[in-house]
Amino acid sequence: MDCKKKEFNLDSNITYLNCAYMSPLMSSVEEAGIIGIKKKRQPNIISGEDFFSESDKLREEFSKLINSEQRNQCVVIPSVSYGMANVANNLKLEKGDNIIVVGEQFPSNVYPWMEVAQKAEAEIKTISPPDTKTGRGELWNKQILDSIDERTKLVACGHIHWADGTIFDLRSIRQKTYEVGAWLAVDATQSLGALPFDVQQLKPDALIAAGYKSLMGPYSIGMAYYGSALSDGNPIEQNWINRFESENFSNLINYNEHYQPGALRYEVGEHSNFILVPMMLEAIKKLNEWKPENIQQYLIDLVEKPISILRKSGFIIEETKYRASNLFGIRLAEHHQMNELKAKLLESNIIVSYRGDAIRVSPNIYNDSNDLNKLVQALTSN
Ligand SMILES: Cc1ncc(COP(=O)(O)O)c(C=O)c1O
Asked: I need a labelling partner for 357 at 20 to 30 A (CA). Which of 32, 108, 239, 279 fits?
């Protein structure tokens, strides 16, 4: 796969290595949003069917991306916190049970569990990263697996860690959760699109992702997949469009106690969003066209050599097996000074993030080896 820079409109004076903060928009995604805005100039051209058809196409495209058998297991959400709130609303917890999260996890995948755990007098077990610079990812994964016990009701984690790209071994975690009857909720905001994800293989109870990072969509829309464990559950809101036969506008006030099939009861109200839905749809279409496995390989090839050069200069970067290539943390050796490195990156117009003690670098398909060489140059120059 070749670099897709041409599809985007990045400022050529900057080196953007910060998809984990927010992806840029492709021109075609931008265009889809503009068409959506213009549609409301003439509301008469927005038909009743339009309330359903575009979001259905989006669900279909998303289900292709994650290999879901049924598109109605996939729903439009406004944020990760919303998607996780639906899980929290249906989690059966008793006093003494526990929920497992990883250390320094993104708050939208922690606050919902804090609330339900407090109410039920259950425990949140936070598995902090081991305090070691070598074999950190492997040991961390082992500690997560070891922490799952017969009182565990949920493991909530990312596919990769949002701050340093540590990969979590979801297959082994899923296996262990099955053994103890716990749910698995995955926040794939920082990986979906850039890493393949197959829900038929992994069978998570929930897979949640914000749309504006590796999914390359706009802000304020995301996607969720809910497995069969949540099929008959209670959504956090009761909106008209998720009710059975809501397509029949003239019959809406004959209130219907049944929901639309699959997981559609969990979809956010006004999910027909005529601007964001076509944008998200266009972005996921592109990802499906390019295929996550090709994007993943492109990024592996892109970062391999720069990472080995950085390691030779003393920087500490997780070994390949336990680290993503679309997002990785660079930790410093004793002779490095974070303030100096920040100043050098700023001076070279290189945009990254700083999370915890790591420089977070998150390239994607619009980056080429020139971009990575600039990063290496800035970090290793005297
Ligand atoms: C891993 C992860 N999850 C979720 C989010 C966003 O959460 P929300 O959609 O609830 O604002 C972010 C934003 O940085 C993130 O990094």
From this structure: 108
